């Protein structure tokens, strides 16, 4: 039996812009669903992560077919590098503040050591006083 006798999916016959829009809608729908669930259930994890997990489950159970989102996912991967430009520019903008960060790091480390040392001394005295 030949696989060519199997009818082709309706979504594969759609024009590429419509497949792209459909894929983006599905991806955004899962992202919105994940965000809504994390807010409603007060989960300590980003909604986009939960949305990706739900998408993975939907793809694994074949509720969502890969070819429905393939064009949109490929398009987003194609511009992924551009999404990192603002973060890189922000990082480079603050490179000159290295000496200020070093001073803050020293102050925070000294505070941590003083606090930990004080807690250790107090705990040691309390342990000695216990019968």
TrEMBL record:
<feature type="transmembrane region" description="Helical">
    <location>
        <begin position="20"/>
        <end position="41"/>
    </location>
</feature>
<keyword id="KW-1003">Cell membrane</keyword>
<protein>
    <submittedName>
        <fullName>CidA/LrgA family protein</fullName>
    </submittedName>
</protein>
<keyword id="KW-1133">Transmembrane helix</keyword>
<feature type="transmembrane region" description="Helical">
    <location>
        <begin position="101"/>
        <end position="123"/>
    </location>
</feature>
<dbReference type="InterPro" id="IPR005538">
    <property type="entry name" value="LrgA/CidA"/>
</dbReference>
<feature type="transmembrane region" description="Helical">
    <location>
        <begin position="76"/>
        <end position="95"/>
    </location>
</feature>
<dbReference type="Pfam" id="PF03788">
    <property type="entry name" value="LrgA"/>
</dbReference>
<feature type="transmembrane region" description="Helical">
    <location>
        <begin position="47"/>
        <end position="64"/>
    </location>
</feature>
<keyword id="KW-0472">Membrane</keyword>
<keyword id="KW-0812">Transmembrane</keyword>
């Amino acid at each position: 039996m030949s696989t060519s006798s199997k009818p082709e999916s309706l979504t594969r016959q759609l024009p590429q812009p419509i497949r792209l829009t459909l894929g983006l809608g599905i991806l955004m729908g899962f992202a919105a669903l994940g965000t809504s669930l994390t807010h409603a259930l007060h989960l300590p994890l980003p909604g986009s992560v939960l949305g990706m997990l739900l998408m993975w489950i939907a793809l694994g159970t074949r509720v969502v077919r890969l070819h429905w989102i393939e064009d949109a996912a490929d398009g987003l991967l194609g511009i992924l590098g551009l999404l990192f430009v603002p973060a890189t520019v922000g990082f480079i903008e603050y490179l000159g503040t290295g000496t200020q960060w070093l001073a803050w790091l020293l102050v925070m480390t000294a505070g941590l050591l003083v606090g930990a040392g004080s807690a250790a001394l107090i705990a040691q005295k309390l342990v000695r006083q216990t019968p």
